[in-house]
Design a protein that fits this description.
Blueprint lengths: L4 H19 L11 E6 L2 E4 H17 L4 E4 H6 L13 E8 L1 H5 L6 E8 L2 E9 L4 E6 L4 E4 L5 E3 L12 E5 L5 H10 L5 E3 L4 H9 L5 E4 L4 H13 L3 E4 L14 E4 L2 H23 L1
Parallel strand pairs: 3-4, 10-11, 10-12
Antiparallel strand pairs: 1-2, 4-5, 5-6, 6-7, 7-8, 8-9, 12-14, 13-14
């Protein structure tokens, strides 16, 4: 099927509506009982996540009858739910609040994301910034852009390639395995600098706009990366798992690297995680 810009704008509208109705009214107003940890104190869920996911799922079901809708919280309840998207003619993967730790801490740095898939292949993605009320989108083969609150649309492009020691990026190392974390943190001085905003939504937006050069993630959760990797590619970038395979909803293992182009990706992988990749390759041989 074709997924037109107006379809993506409709999806962005549903995400914005959910943010206005369920997320922003609870921001900095959550009682303690409305926040709980899932896998760790850094991996939180709030009543706003649950309510926003339900609202988005209901809106998508009305607008796209028969589509499969999977959200982070539904997968948390039933991990098998994600398997439904592999063969679905049309599926949506939703992250109701990306950056929940920031949100629950009162930090206005979080986003709402949705990816659109056709039989397991990502064909569109959208990231909404509820604070600025703007959204970043991409359709496969159609480029990437940001649409401001007033409706102005600006095309996005990643930064120009540069040597590793001149590249600045964002590295999400908190959820990496001890082996990958040790390798990456030891090698960060090989770059010009790195930070972590604890929200893939904003990190993808920043790298797609060329404000940063690279991203490196440990966890490969579909709701965190399907929309962002498409937006990054459509903005001219190159991304792949550390083992060299393209990122997909079913990707296993750990490590996802985004760079301005394939040559930069190869240089960054060697500089930041070369020893880890080599050891992993020997183990799988």
């Amino acid at each position: 099927m074709s997924f037109a810009p107006d379809d993506l704008r409709a999806v962005a509208g549903m995400l914005r509506d959910a943010a206005r109705a369920e997320i922003l009214p609870r921001f900095r107003a959550l009682p303690a009982h409305a926040v709980r940890a899932k896998s760790s104190p850094l991996d939180l869920v709030t009543e706003a996540d649950v309510a926003a996911e339900a609202a988005i799922a209901a809106g998508l079901a009305r607008a796209f009858p028969g589509a499969t809708v999977v959200g982070e919280e539904s997968v948390s309840r039933d991990p098998r739910a994600l398997d439904a998207i592999g063969g679905a003619p049309l599926a949506f993967v939703v992250d109701p609040i990306d950056g929940t730790k920031n949100y629950a801490s009162g930090l206005p740095l979080f986003g709402v994301m949705a990816a659109v898939l056709e039989r397991g292949e990502t064909i569109a993605g959208v990231i909404v910034d509820p604070i600025l009320d703007e959204w970043t989108g991409a359709i496969a083969g159609g480029g990437a852009w940001v649409e401001r609150a007033g409706g102005a649309r600006v095309a996005l492009h990643v930064s120009e390639p540069a040597p590793v020691d001149r590249m600045v990026g964002m590295v999400s190392w908190l959820f990496m395995s001890s082996a990958l974390k040790a390798a990456v943190t030891a090698n960060l001085p090989r770059t010009a600098g790195a930070c972590d905003y604890r929200t893939a939504a904003h990190e993808y937006r920043l790298v797609a706009a060329g404000h940063y050069d690279f991203l490196l993630f440990g966890k490969l959760s579909a709701w965190d990366h399907l929309a962002g990797t498409l937006i990054h590619r459509e903005a001219g970038g190159y991304n792949a798992c550390l083992d060299g395979s393209p990122y997909r909803w079913s990707s296993g293992g750990e490590g996802l690297l985004c760079a301005p182009d394939e040559a930069s990706w190869t240089a960054l992988r060697h500089a930041l995680a070369g020893d880890f990749v080599a050891r992993a390759g020997r183990r799988s041989a």
